[in-house]
């Protein structure tokens, strides 16, 4: 599994924490920034990460801003991206099982690192159920062409 991670300044601290978690779990990842806590524009990071997932460079991504909302709205502008904002474990599981989400978004100012790590663990370890859900996901993919 090829994983890419990105954040703006609002998500920087949580991104660094999640990177530590991924290292502990020996899960390889690439960090597309931001690499400092200085203020930056979340659409720029969202576009870079989303395009790299959409073109197959990576299988999935994690994007973090202050709320997880702006960075997810921006990522979902890229064709083929299904970015899901998850601040609980149930949503993390079903974003994968029913929506085949390929990017997880979270808010660094909303949840703490313990819950965020659990959400990441579930997101990365849950598969897509397919079946009727695949038909619905295909309908979504057709919408943004
Ligand atoms: C940055 O201040 C903040 O607006 C951003 O991180 C995010 O929360 C936007 O949705």
Attribute tags:
145 residues; alpha/beta; 5 strands; 14% strand; binds D-ribose; RpiB_LacA_LacB
Number of strands: 5
| Percent in strands | 5-15%
Count of domain modules: 1
The strand order across the widest sheet is: 2-1-3-5-4
Ends apart, CA distance between termini:
26 Å
Mean pLDDT: 97
CATH architecture: 3-Layer(aba) Sandwich
Instruction: Please estimate the helix content.
Output: 40-55%
Q: What name is given to the CATH topology?
A: Ribose 5-phosphate Isomerase B, Chain: A
Structural class by sheet pairing and helices: alpha/beta
Kindly describe this structure.
The protein has 145 residues and is an alpha/beta fold. 46% of the residues lie in helices and 14% in strands. It has a five-stranded parallel sheet, sandwiched between helices. The radius of gyration is 14 Å and the shape is globular. The two termini are 26 Å apart. The structure holds D-ribose (RB5). D-ribose binds at residues 8, 10, 42, 65-67, 69-70. This is Ribose 5-phosphate isomerase. Belongs to the LacAB/RpiB family. Keywords: Isomerase. The active site is at 65 (proton acceptor), 98 (proton donor).
Task: Give a short synopsis of this structure.
The protein is of the alpha/beta class. 46% of the residues lie in helices and 14% in strands. The protein has one domain: 3-Layer(aba) Sandwich (Ribose 5-phosphate Isomerase B, Chain: A), CATH 3.40.1400.10.
